[in-house]
Amino acid sequence: MKGVVFAGDRQLELQQFDDPTPEPDEVVLEIKASGMCGSDLKFYRAPPGQAAKELGFTNPAPVIAGHEPCGVVVAVGSQVSAAQARIGQRVMVHHYKGCGFCPHCSTGWMQLCVDGVQKVYGMTGHGAHARYMKCPASTLVELPESLSFETGAAISCGTGTAWGALKRLELAGDQTIAIFGQGPVGLSATQLAKAMGARVIALDVNAERLARAQAFGADYLVNPAQTDALAAIKELTHGLGAHASLEASSAPAARSQAVQCVRTWGKACFVGEGGQLSLDVSPDLLRRQVTLIGSWTFSTHGQADCAEFIADRNVDVDQLFTHRWSLDQADEAYRVFDQQSEGKGVFVSF
Fold this sequence. Notes:
Layout: E1 2-8, E2 11-16, E3 26-35, H1 40-45, H2 50-54, E4 69-76, E5 90-93, E6 96-97, E7 119-120, E8 132-136, E9 140-142, H3 149-155, H4 158-169, E10 176-180, H5 184-195, E11 199-203, H6 207-215, E12 220-222, H7 229-236, E13 242-247, H8 252-260, E14 262-270, H9 281-284, E15 291-294, H10 300-312, E16 321-326, H11 330-338, E17 344-349
Parallel strand pairs: 10-11, 10-13, 11-12, 13-14, 14-15, 16-17
Antiparallel strand pairs: 1-2, 3-4, 3-8, 3-17, 4-5, 5-9, 6-7
């Protein structure tokens, strides 16, 4: 089979790999949709091997990219029970492998494994930018019949990450949330927050992304490059500030504003990776009783809850995708995605 490999320095290759065979506790999926995530760009842009080393891994062999997998089970290992997986089952993948037994792994948080995550599929272990992918049966999350494979791919990282953050914030329908950054994760947060009944203030410096946020239900749009974001949020919230904020851009200024824009007793949640934060602790946090939360993706249970919520409320997650590609178009796909001016892309032809 062919698989997409990030060669480094914005180069990729479509290499040949053997079709996978499952180990006793593993399954093989035929991939039906494999999403493109902003986290891919770190591996796409970095010098060869650098991004993996920063995660504590050294990859002696090429690794197939793609950590938003969704497909159908086509083979199961000898120790996989029918309760874990069955041939023909529609599934997503929780794209981390841990020890499987520690307090975090046993509750579906493999990325928080006490012994350290063993693999991140699509980054340090073969991912989903190929026709087939193998993974432990314990990483599978069933995809509801009413949802498309593309929606399942989105839930497998970007949309699931937005869900995880909103749940950490305990967002309620009578609250106002300010969402900084309207890329795929921020836009997912806008869409899900609206489905939860909240009022959404969407912020971005890109006019096209703000227009998409409006189409996804945002109640108010703020461009911090053109207006005072904090003043605008206060004006929209009777001078009190938002009940909650979610920062998905990784921009230092946005991070500070995400904390400063919430009201007394408010909550701010960061999901954007990397970078730094500068705050005046007393006025920004302590003396307003603000809760600051870091949220890294989701558990297998959270992934399942997200899919169920989307199915029950008919949330049109497929709207996220502005581009659908075949694997043979991978080079063009990542060149477009690297500009970060378009929406989300997904590979659907294998």
